[in-house]
Amino acid sequence: MTTARALLVPAHAPGTFHCVQRCVRRAYLCGVDAYSGRSFEHRREWIEQRLLDLANHFAVALLGYAVMSNHLHIVLHIDPTTAAAWSDDEVARRWIALFPPREDSDAARLAKEQVLLGNRERLAVCRQRLGSLSWFMRCLAEPIARRANREDEVSGRFWQGRYRCQALLDERAILAALAYVDLNPIRAGIADGLEHSHHTSIQQRIAAVTEQPARIDQPLQPVAGLPLLSMPCTLGDYLQLVEWTGRQQRGDKRGAIARDMPNALRRLGLPPERWQLAVRGIGSGWWRAVGGASDLVQLARNLGQCWLKGTGFARRAGLA
Fold it and tell me: Is 309 part of a structural domain of the chain?
């Protein structure tokens, strides 16, 4: 049964989501296309920089991302109420930064900003869009598609329709989605360690600890955007959790480290085997939403449905 995106992503309520955007027509977002022999590695930088830029303008906390060869993963928290609280000047400044005038000058920017401030209806629309997940993904996907099409000298679709979106209903779901995303390059065989997982949030976090070792004991923060969400572990605990999870899921490293439970799992109250199942379930066990069985049942009722895919999986995984 198809569910309207507006029901899963309420326009006026904050939420945390795992989004996946894929390419079409044998198109390569990044990497080396084995069919044509062309390298598109440079496009990884396009995506990563665009993501970080957008996070600084929208009312979002960018929690995690991984730029793969023909798709990308994003975990973010978006809060329309934050955008609603911004001043008119703040909204205008952020919108003009996203959509600057054709004449790239301070005078042109100021003129466009004054026009926007003088149009109350348009300003209200811009405010709503700065707190919208759909507009965040649109502002990410469209410029990349146009730029890639120009480079490939083609026209038409670059992305595979709309992005897939999962609502993350609790802290366990958020951490599982983050670990799933950060381990994506290792599972795909394009990286042999977290420090070599280029253009991912985990690499950014490792670099942050390398530059400032004291950060390892600080709470886990977004890699970009606003500090809108409090995570239930430190940066050091999260790095330990992801490394431990990756080693347990790698068949060639079975038994390479002790099966001691990471600190983050102790805080979440999850046994190791349930955590492993939860991480794997991000890709196949759940669908529109990730969480415990009771939360999924309640969400289904809110959506006017009898059930949501993943409810049985959550029960089997022992996630009440």
Answer: no
Residue 209 lies in a domain: yes
Assess whether 261 and 142 both reside in one domain: yes
**Statement to judge: residues 29 and 159 lie in one domain:** yes
DSSP annotation of 200: B
Range of the domain at 116: 87-129
Using one digit for the tens of pLDDT, what is the confidence trace for 50-109? 999 999 999 999 999 999 888 899 999 999 999 999 999 999 999 999 999 988 888 999
Domain count, the chain: 2
pTM for the structure as a whole: 0.90
Return d(Cα 233, Cα 220) in angstroms, integer: 6
Within 10 Å of residue 247's Cβ, how many Cβ atoms?
16
Whether 242 is in a domain gets the answer yes
Among candidate residues 121, 100, 120, 122, the one with its CA nearest the CA of residue 112? 100
Q: Closest Cα to residue 133, out of 185, 88, 79? A: 79
Element (H, E) at 95: helix 88-98
Condensed to tens digits (0 to 9), the pLDDT of residues 165-212 reads 999 999 999 999 999 999 998 887 787 788 888 889 999 999 999 999
